[in-house]
## 1
Amino acid sequence: MDSNRPPGIDLHIHSTASDGTYAPSEILSRAHAQGLAAIAITDHDTVDGCRQALATGVPDGLSFITGVEISAAPPPFFPVSGSIHMLGYGIALDNPGLSAILARLQDSRQRRNPRIIERLNALGLDISLAEVIHDGGTPDQMGRPHIARAMVKKGLVPNFDAAFDVYLGNGRPAYVDKYRVPFDDAVAAIRNAGGVAVIAHPGLYRSQDDLMGDDATAAFAAKGVEGLEVYYPEHSQRQTIHYSDLADRHGLLKTGGTDFHGGMKPGVVLGLGYGDLHVPTALFDRLQAAVNRRSRCAGTAAKEPGKDGT
Ligand code: AMP
Ligand code: ZN
Ligand code: FE
Ligand code: FE
């Protein structure tokens, strides 16, 4: 670590529990070795990686907050193509409502993967689900990145990006749509699990307008969203400033992280993104304070069943 640089944080990390290539224990030890102050593991549609991290034990000097990244359907006021990724921070890992949503997502993934393989086979590519699983995918959590990696290994495509560009990407011939959680349900599940809901990488959604603006942000906030992922490797400086200002104007928390996937996203380094990302530690302290407030509220709400329809 550059000793002149204050320690940073990384609140967007994928582990082997979803489509990352580092185990939760390795993520903890690397984050600690790099001098990061705090991390969150935010796997797609599962909290197993958080469970494993907590079972391993968080090294002294590193703070850990639970996380998840849920694929939600875009709400009517923000009609982008594909999914809105909702980050949930500080969630209780055993919350029944959240667990039910994650189980449904995993079930849909399990049914989608064989259909992708069928399409690849119909396109003349010789690949089987067994080969993808053999190559490190867990049947209920694997996704297109695992399939892409197996395709590269078999020499069916020259590289990982080509697998998406030619076959697996949205709108390409082997693409199969996936289940998305209704937006309101995703936010409610995160909040009812004592967590804080944050819109992941707002700069990646393409709507009619170039950037998510004040109207959409106000609507998201009205739905219970409490933060924006301002710091993200793919955000330009202009976008980072834009989302930071938006969060300030709407009283939202700011978060940031690299979307680290290990070997599934080569070039993105834990804590540093493409090398120059720095997420200020103060953001973690504010997020943790908000989670502490929410957990107290969720504890109260749990004693009043029916109040929020669950
Ligand atoms: P899945 O959850 O199976 O739909 O896969 C989504 C994951 O695939 C994302 O989190 C990315 O890591 C990766 N991905 C999606 N689109 C692309 C792309 N065009 N190129 C490379 N990776 C992609
Ligand atoms: Zn991913
Ligand atoms: Fe995402
Ligand atoms: Fe992610």
## 2
Amino acid sequence: MAKNLFLLPGDGIGPEAMGEVRKIIAHMNDAMGADFALDEGLVGGCAYDAHGAAISEEDMAKAMAADAVLFGAVGGPKWDDVPYEVRPEAGLLRLRKDMELFANLRPAICYPALANASSLKPELVEGLDILIIRELTGGVYFGEPKTITDLGNGQKRAIDTQVYDTYEIERISSVAFEMARTRSNRVCSMEKRNVMKSGVLWNQVVTATHKEKYSDVKLDHMLADAGGMQLVRAPKQFDVIVTDNLFGDMLSDVAAMLTGSLGMLPSASLGAPDAKTGKRKALYEPVHGSAPDIAGKGIANPIAMIASFAMCLRYSFNMVKDADNLEKAIANVLDQGIRTGDIMADGARQVGTVEMGDAILKEFVSLSV
Ligand code: NAD
């Protein structure tokens, strides 16, 4: 059966980076019998220009029906003044909401060739390979009440509500345990049970889910603030970290920066398994934005986008060998000293987006025989 991929390249460097993924897909279809069926839509500013909305209903329906969505980036100064509800980011938020993508996966991988670019000592980050799983649709960003009230005495009161139900913690911790089984089989759950009731429940539910279904996986608990310290003290101690929306937002950015440039960071957002097919809705996207400062110049780093496609192969299609080969191809190209401007180093050869994509494809082809 064809594997249906829906591409949403978006704005700025999104289409340039997506172009390099398209070449890899074409090779996999032509030479490896991969049978990807591609469709493409508009999201963000370009969708606003075409339809007056950040994503059209037709493209939303295609995203909902696809086996996986590959998303580039949205936004740019051209759309700074469009109405709030149709701003470019609204397209991404709509996709996350309608597809019920509750699990955000952010790997932090430090390629040996880039260990010197980290703000930490190279020996602390070289070979780093951790996966942060952040709950994406609940917690304090969405909890009600969410208000600012005028108290009438010259003071105002702001309220955000941190709220989690059992099922939300069960499903995100299940994703973490399942991911750990495909890696080094260790999960560290982070919360603040010492000061937050939601942390107490989080801890209890993760522990119960582990006991019931995943006792083969090693589970540790850590307070989220201590976890932040450990991430910059000794990040290689972790395999999979699972945490809530707020802590995950911060900890995943901390972990990401251990590894260097924004142009290197992929991500995946997954929904619940379908009751009939067991397939999860999924969207894969680089962490970076549309980089308007370099858009159209042919110098963007396509690695985050290509690594997002590697995650898609791994998590949506179980094409583990191909995912491994694509990630290895990226590492090999970096080892050869081929770099885009954002990760340039002394003695390396600077290339543009297309040349970087070609070099990775060439390595991928030779690793795939
Ligand atoms: P950005 O990630 O677009 O860029 C930050 C800096 O990193 C820029 O100097 C950029 O040139 C550089 N950079 C980013 N990706 C790169 C790559 N692949 N190769 C080389 N250099 C790269 O963030 P920003 O400048 O804060 O935002 C620009 C626009 O993107 C804004 O409109 C913002 O709203 C939007 N944005 C979108 C997303 C998304 O689509 N998911 C995420 C963040 C920001």
## 3
Amino acid sequence: MRLSQYLAHAGVASRRHAEELITEGKVKVNGVTVTELGSKIDPEIDRVEFNEQLIQGEPKIYLLLNKPSGYLCSVSDPYGRPTVLDLVSKIDQRLYPVGRLDFDSEGLLLMTNDGYFNNQMIHPRYKINKEYQVWVKGKVEFGEENQLRRGVELDDGMTAPAEVQILQTEGERSLLRITIHEGRKRQVKRMCSAIGHPVISLKRTAFGCLSLQGVSSGKFRRLMPAEIKQLLDMAAGRQY
Ligand code: URA
């Protein structure tokens, strides 16, 4: 869709006036001033600002869901398994999960209809920390814990250094807290298997500045504007 058309639809100005606003440098797309007439945007993905104010097409929505195990992180499933959308069915807007948690994983999952936000959260360039609590088979020794910290070789390459703590050892299993900023497919499970301790269960307990506090399993809450800003700032490399 043409940028001027988008601005007109959003009620910012008439089409003609919107073109003037663009050439005057008053419109930004994804943080970059756009002055070219005829510029196109994808309303699902791009973030348009006029005079530093975000233009809302469809109202943007940001949820923090505490995903239970046994739900697919997908908008539909050909095999009819429950999906995370079933857990937010009282929200009318179209939503999709930000990144993935495996079917049998649980914990903190963001959901949104803001494509720009989604991209900032999942792109490998933006290093948002994700914290997991993981029960693994066997007793994890100090040397093995250190291997995870330094990085382990997976079939898609070496993992970046991770923060790792052994929280508990109970019989023939150990509870680890692992914090990583990468988001490769099944990464934590593959990392633990690589040091000889397959994962029994996995829960994401934090994502950037967010935790699961106050949100029980299967429930969700909306993010506050300050939280959305903080996450976007973190993705942009601004420290907290
Ligand atoms: N790492 C995994 O292996 N699985 C998840 O669901 C999330 C991170």
